[in-house]
Each structure stands twice: as C-alpha cells, then as structure tokens.
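step=encode ok
step=design start
structure_in=
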C-alpha cells in the first residue's frame, strides 16, 4: 500500500471543516490515518514543502495564507491513497472542481482550497520527511 501527506489548510480549520474532511477520508474502505497533528507552520517548513513554486506570482500569498492559522497534518495509508486523495480533493481551482469533491463542495478561491495531498510517490516521500521526520 501507499502513504500520502495531507494538510487541512488554515481555511478548513477556521471554517470548522476538520471533521467533515477527515470523515470523508475515514470512510474510504481500507484507508487509515496513521499520524495526525494540529500545528502552525513556519516559513522554513513551507519553503521546503512548496519550493517547486518559488518565484511564481502566487507563491508569496500562498506562503502567507499557509501561516495564517494552524493546519492539520496527517498521514493516510492504504490502497492507492495518493491518486485517491487527489480525486477526493478535486482539482486546484475549486470552481473547476466537481461537486462531491472536497474543493468542489466547499471552496471558491484558488488559494483557499482547503486541502493539500501529495501528488506522486516521490512527492509523498519528500513531504512525509518534512512533516513527520520520525516516521519509519
Ligand atoms: P497543493 O495540494 O496545495 O499542492 O495544491 P495542488 O497540488 O492542487 O496545486 P499546486 O501544487 O499547483 O499549487 C499549490 C497551491 O498554490 C494551490 O493549492 C493553490 O492554493 C496555489 N495556487 C496554485 N496555482 C495557483 C494560481 O494560479 N493562482 C493562485 N492564486 N494560487 C495558486
Ligand atoms: Mg501541489
């Protein structure tokens, strides 16, 4: 099976959607949450996490937004969780995301799109090391 790094972004936490979103993840057959923490991210952690976007016009606002309140970081483990969580989240732009997906159901603004989920096995390995370095 696979592991993915998920972040419930500050908008999701502020709006009281932690339970709603985690509930959707929990209801997927055979998936399990194997680590979970509420924490406020610092600039250094976010630079590691979103380094691929450095220099893009949305980078600085994204960094500010991601530090605007606590996030919930979690590790999800199970069958094809990487692809599955991206499907559950929906595409980056919540207006383009289908109803039924997390971004499609709850989002309108591209920056405030509620959830991050690793986009590949390589990203998952890299991101898990940033957020849960103690994980074996
Ligand atoms: P993450 O799971 O957060 O990584 O989202 P993603 O993989 O769907 O998108 P991507 O990695 O390309 O971008 C990271 C984040 O930057 C997105 O979730 C958005 O919040 C923000 N972002 C990406 N593209 C744009 C854009 O064109 N405009 C704005 N305002 N924000 C963007
Ligand atoms: Mg991404």
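sequence_out=
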């Amino acid at each position: 099976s696979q592991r993915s790094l998920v972040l419930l972004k500050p908008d999701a936490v502020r709006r009281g959607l932690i339970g709603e979103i985690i509930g959707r993840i929990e209801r997927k057959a055979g998936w399990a949450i194997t680590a979970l923490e509420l924490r406020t991210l610092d600039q250094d952690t976010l630079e590691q996490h979103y380094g691929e976007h450095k220099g893009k016009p949305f980078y600085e606002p994204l960094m500010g937004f991601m530090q605007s309140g606590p996030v919930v970081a979690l590790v999800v483990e199970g069958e094809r969780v990487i692809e599955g969580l991206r499907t559950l989240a929906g595409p980056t732009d919540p207006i383009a995301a289908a109803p039924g997906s997390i971004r499609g159901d709850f989002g309108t603004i591209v920056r405030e799109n509620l959830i991050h989920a690793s986009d590949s096995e390589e990203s998952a390995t890299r991101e898990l090391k940033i957020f849960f370095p103690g994980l074996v």
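step=design ok
step=annotate ok -> The CA atoms of residues 14 and 111 lie 15 Å apart.
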